[in-house]
Amino acid sequence: MAMSSFDALIQDLVIANRILANEDVVDAYGHVSVRHPDNPRHFLIARSVAPELVTTEDIVELDLDGQPVRDEKRTLYLERFIHAAIFEARPDVMAVVHAHAEDTLAFGVADATKLRPVIHSGSFIGTEVPVWDIADNFGDTNLLVTNMEQGRDLAKRLGVNNVALMRGHGFASAGRTLIEVVRMSVYLPRNARTLMRAKQLGGTIKYLSQGEIDARNRGYSPYSTETWRAWEYWASKAGCGHMLTRPDDEGTRTLRG
Amino acid sequence: MAMSSFDALIQDLVIANRILANEDVVDAYGHVSVRHPDNPRHFLIARSVAPELVTTEDIVELDLDGQPVRDEKRTLYLERFIHAAIFEARPDVMAVVHAHAEDTLAFGVADATKLRPVIHSGSFIGTEVPVWDIADNFGDTNLLVTNMEQGRDLAKRLGVNNVALMRGHGFASAGRTLIEVVRMSVYLPRNARTLMRAKQLGGTIKYLSQGEIDARNRGYSPYSTETWRAWEYWASKAGCGHMLTRPDDEGTRTLRG
Amino acid sequence: MAMSSFDALIQDLVIANRILANEDVVDAYGHVSVRHPDNPRHFLIARSVAPELVTTEDIVELDLDGQPVRDEKRTLYLERFIHAAIFEARPDVMAVVHAHAEDTLAFGVADATKLRPVIHSGSFIGTEVPVWDIADNFGDTNLLVTNMEQGRDLAKRLGVNNVALMRGHGFASAGRTLIEVVRMSVYLPRNARTLMRAKQLGGTIKYLSQGEIDARNRGYSPYSTETWRAWEYWASKAGCGHMLTRPDDEGTRTLRG
Amino acid sequence: MAMSSFDALIQDLVIANRILANEDVVDAYGHVSVRHPDNPRHFLIARSVAPELVTTEDIVELDLDGQPVRDEKRTLYLERFIHAAIFEARPDVMAVVHAHAEDTLAFGVADATKLRPVIHSGSFIGTEVPVWDIADNFGDTNLLVTNMEQGRDLAKRLGVNNVALMRGHGFASAGRTLIEVVRMSVYLPRNARTLMRAKQLGGTIKYLSQGEIDARNRGYSPYSTETWRAWEYWASKAGCGHMLTRPDDEGTRTLRG
Lengths: 257, 257, 257, 257
Fold this sequence. Notes:
The structure is a homotetramer.
Chain A: H1 5-22, E1 31-35, E2 42-46, E3 59-63, H2 80-89, E4 95-99, H3 102-109, E5 131-132, H4 134-138, H5 148-158, E6 163-166, E7 170-175, H6 178-201, H7 210-219, H8 225-237, H9 250-255
Parallel strand pairs in A: 5-6
Antiparallel strand pairs in A: 1-2, 1-4, 2-3, 4-7, 6-7
């Protein structure tokens, strides 16, 4: 019996959670969501639980105000408004990650070095990575994005970019598919580390050119063999290779974001 | 049959030991203690054994002079006086960690950069992290806190703060619950690393403001879903998820510090 | 029944893939190849799959234009032209690695510090490690080597050296045997890290002298006890110790590159 | 049936190998030896095999010229002369480690920062850590210590100290017991990392005073509870906790170095 494309998407969301945990992008905190394939004003995300422990039963459906669509007794992520606000502001975005990956944090805290792509796998973060400071418009807070107003302020700072750093906190990234946003979030800290080391080595740093960033972006295809290769590998390392839905099932593939 | 709240606390202390080992906060050395729930002049801590190997049988009960309450043939931690002295000086403190987490050490050794919160998960270390140097009052020692006089000197330097660095040695942290002190001790090295990297990147560093630190502190609740999420995740990673006492058992929860 | 030397070579290639993955030289991306022992104009490499997941069934035979020798429906590595072009240009080379090992990347991006051997295990990278920038002759690309023209340009920059860094991308290394190229690729990032740290410590850096590099190179023998020791250890750590062909089987050994 | 003290020592030597591998002090290369308890002109060391793979059958007995005492067909470590020469020069030394632990290497390569104890667990490396450069007396070599003349030159540079760095290569450390030399070798890289980070943080660095180093050294006892705690923990992590000989077996303990 074939798995429905919706069930396959739920499984992919579980895989995404596990990959992000296993690749040290998230720890107890951080989350990943995907827009509902049949209703663009809804999205899917886990209830409040550490990503490594997420199962299909933990996935809930929220609307673009961050409210659960169905009766839900379980606690939700405090910061689900990051996802709601980005999905609201950016119809092109199908998947969102919020995380505190350690090696990105310094770039939101020190102002002398802008985070920009220096390696080809970092190209997907895009030319500009804005830094959002919650204090600019909300003063002294606990730094968490706990309502739609804060979420919308972050989404506004993100603008048309793929990643925004959040000062003293982490980052939000937005992609055209789950696989893209996971990959971007895995390579973001690697790009950050490479840039830090390049600064230490000194001299002139050669960033990716705008033309290179564009060329890589044009070549991206969510279910290409190359993209799948990483997804399959990371899922396998995270212990959920058995949950993979093969992309050669064309029917399923085209239905999925 | 329900587990008593005291037995649950002992298990939590074992979990705390395992988490600190698994998160690289302690290695063969370092320890964690909790104040006795029924007798504030006693506290619970393991006998002299590496935290990763601690079981419920290893927990002993000591008084505020660091002496065992019952006949005890097994060797105790040489530095149990750190715990005794902090519990003595700070009635508000319910749990203490002493550790040598590597990435905190440089801040106790070099004097140009003060360790302060730069990330939201580091806020619990508080505005001020004093550095205690055992040599100031005790001259040339083996750097270990091996009696109450040294322990009290450290507790005095800690003052009303949550963490004190110990020059050339490690740190002591103090919390309102076991979960809080473990979390603080896990995120302390992460905050330290972020600050080191920010210094390397250069420019002005934006620390958390006093208002932000206060806002985060006000929002803290030891058995909130968010706090529990990390505890559950770390315990699970450390291989002792099966020892967790669910916080939805209200009777147990309110009895525990 | 004795394994043929060709089958043993295929197994060695699988082992090489797994070692490179386990030692963090490759992740989902990166590949290793070996020249065909009976036909120097062919080489063996995996189909497009993450190195950690490679099995003997994944190995395909390509010619020096990077084209499959037999009917092949499975997708091939986009960058197989790196291997084809180096085998074409360098008859002395029997094995090639292309990878993105993180700690080598900064040296291709910052121009103030040249990557050179500072530790004895890094000596095999050779006196000179040229940096190839695909943009010099091909302008704005996706940075991947996707045809023979680009591959040949890289091979030309590699010249008679053992390693070329690829700006913003990774490196290509070339050896006289599979074991040599794997070892070189494992120690290349370690040499890079040591050099970075030495720069931070400051003062004059003592690189290996030309005489030392030559002396080490003269002493190298692919199946010496010392070389085998590392191969056996890495294979064992990567979980494929059972696939090792013992070098004391002299017949097999001399037939293999 | 009680294990003889000699057999227990052999097992301790196997444990030492495994601990050093598991703690990343050695990889495929590096070795540890112990002086023969009944014949101070002999010592015990593994045949040429990666430390992680060493078993009791791999241990061989060598004399102070580095030659095997019994008929031995198996290949020996090329650099066994490091051990022979240090045992020859230093009657007080009962155990020797030679390793390439990565974070020590930069201190042998850059001349601006001397490696000295900054943390209490690093005190055992002693006040002075000389750097030996094989090139000073032997010119261009492959950097390996492959004969007694080179070994003696290294031992001379080591002098009365506990550790000598070997430029571009690694270090040699010497202790009064196996447990001491293992512990010193594990904490040496940690001390090196702390010092590197302290240099980055800037300002004045507070090293351990001579009085502190002396106080720690006086307090050291090879089978104290504190020392055993680390040995037990590391052995347990390295998967050979079952091979531990309990130190409470007094007869065995006093017979062992």
